[in-house]
Amino acid sequence: MSVGSLCHVARLRHLSLALHRQFLRARHLHNAYGEPETEGLDEEDGREGVHPGGYRLQYNPSSYYRPQHDPGASLSRLEMEEQCQSTVTSAFRQQSNRYSVSSSRRLSSTKNTLLDLAFNRGTGAKAERAPPYRTEPLTPDVKGDPRAFQTCRPEYSAMTLDLSQRPAPVHSKQAFFLLHKVTILKGSMEPVDVTGFLTKLSHLHPDQTPLVRGDTRFIMLLRYSVENLSHFSHAQLLKVLKSFVWLGLPPTHSMLGLYEAELGRRAGEMGLHQLLLAADLWRCLGRSVPQYLQCLYDCASLHLGQVGVPEIVQLLYVMGEGRHCPKELVHPLEQILMRHLDQLEPEEVGAVCLGLFKSQTALSEGSVNRLVDRAHLVVYEMSDFAMVNVMKLLRFSYLDHRAWLEVMAHEVPRRAPSMGVQGLMHVALACSSLHYRNERILLAVAERLPSLAPHCRSKDSGKLIWAFGTLGVLPSQCPNFYPSLIEALRQRADEFQRYPEHLLTGLLGLAFICQLPEDLVALALSPEFVSLATRSKQLDLKKDLFTLDGTVALELPHWTGPRLSRELREETTEILWRFAQKDVCQKVEVLEAEAVLRDLLGGEEFVSKRMILPHTRSIDLEVHLNPVGQPLPVTSVQTYPISSKDWTTSSGSSTQGWEKINTGVTLTEDLLTQLTNGRKTPLPPTQASQLPLLRRTEPDEGGGLFSVGVDLTDGLVGTLTKPPIRLAIQVTNRNHYCYRSPQLLGLHAMKRRQLKLTGYRVVELPHREWFPLLRRTHAEKLAYMHCKTPALF
């Protein structure tokens, strides 16, 4: 026997012993209490059953029953499993049950009566209603079923489980008669017996299955199923797994790990439909099975000749739910998909798009275009859910399918009143990712959202605010949208402990449109939150904190709340600058603009390529001019605002970190008085300490500092007392703007606003003008830049 087989046998023995110990413990408790556990439900939904002997049995359905999960939920089950890990023994135990009373292997007539009372509701006994299992309403979502595509063709029935077709229910007496037979047959049961018992028990009404799962004899039956695991036929094994779905077995049940291993071992012997059915059953159970899925993918490459429309759609669905598609399968699956594309039904198109999105599978641009072409052709027959899935794929592919986007301008406003939070969020997020600013779409979403805001998760609120802020939708255009989502963020503040990125996402979206709720900003910049956010290993949130902190410094001059430490600011600045030096600083359009400006202004000392505002994460070409338009040398000094007072305002006051350029005699009030023959010419108080300088000239014979014939007029005095002109020259590209629009995207609009706030004149070299010149001669580039000179100087 191989080592692998020995390990497998050892695991079976270990689980069998654990089940046996659980059975003995249940029998011991029965002897101690003298009565079987009835979990007596007199009526539905959490009431106490009154035992004839006088004591009460607490009924707590959450002890052993999880409400049916959404088969299309996008959240990973790994997180749930990590929270619910248990030992082999405890997996079979009824968690949180206040009375660990288990039924006996023998049932007296009295006990049978009690069990019948438990199963058959409406006994007339007075009962107290316990608090409902869930007090909050479920988050509304797109109206539709993520598995709806499986009803498009009869062929899906061979590889999926139709959750809407539950088996006809059996009477509770029959169920307990079957459990009684388990105690008689015991270890003599054959695989066919185990399969038959589990199949018949799975026909119980869903409200009665928790009682069966808590019965010791059912635990015995599970033990015997494990002992017969290797003896089941493929069909029997799948039938048992299907029974577990209807019985509501918890996805973290330790025994299921053995079933996954057995199915993985058999994968090479099973047909394609059996492999896909097993994967679908695991999905229905809500269990993450990466090892089995890898076996499925390995075998799928051997069955590609059998893959038709239902097989390719179901396989992509499974890959999406498993969040993975092997690289070696992408190309053959793409070819099969394109071959059958015109046969896809509307819901199948949506399922394919969702599977590709969730598994992060990148098809060629041509294939994505063809897929969206098909979606565009059947869009009016699509459910909201399928339509949103197409938007997700476009967002992932960064593909602007113009015809689809145009039809969305009509479909989203029509459908928005019946759509839920997550569907609307994904529509807005896709528009944001594609830089597609369409007011018909956005205002329809904004009109619907306030009524749904109480249902928003922090994720929904943060991403909706980010999307609208990125596209520059102002509060005046949708008065209720931003306030309702800001309040939703406040209401979900407890979620920030686990997902700090959602608060920062929302606040940055608000910063783009100059809206900063100070209570949430204070929370985001508090030492505790900063420590939490910077500890995250999955996400680098330092840059988001840095952008928020810099915005607070400039746009909240009265701010006295928390700020980032100098060390964190300097560290993040250095990270951003190193990246910029390797990336944007090396782009041809930037290097060429820098070279032309140097030639035009007379040398490299007159142009500085740097991050003027590091927290905006991009560079500018900085130029300084004196009041008469002559270039001044620029020393590249990185600075960062400690507060708004450290920056120059538009009135021209000096800033911390700016170098003094000593070029001559300082123009003081006394000197001006002498030059104007005693007429007092006071200087503005903000300019008295730092003034422009007069260049010294060589005196001629009998001459002084100035020629005798020069009149110092009010205009000349005004010119002499003006601060230097500082220019931020920006080489933009189309990704700075909304799609086919002159509207700057949020981050770039915020940067331009803040540059003006700090005293810079922003000069743009538009990509539509500058990029075509990159292929022209240097003389033509100089001529273009010279034409910009009046605007610059």
From TrEMBL:
Residues 125-147 are annotated as: Disordered. GO terms for biological process: mitochondrial RNA processing; regulation of mitochondrial mRNA stability. Keywords: Mitochondrion. GO terms for molecular function: RNA binding. The keyword Mitochondrion applies. GO terms for cellular component: mitochondrial matrix; ribonucleoprotein granule. It is found in: Mitochondrion. InterPro entries: FAST_2, FAST_kinase, FAST_Leu-rich, RAP. Residues 727-787 form the RAP domain. This is FAST kinase domains 5. It comes from Oncorhynchus kisutch.
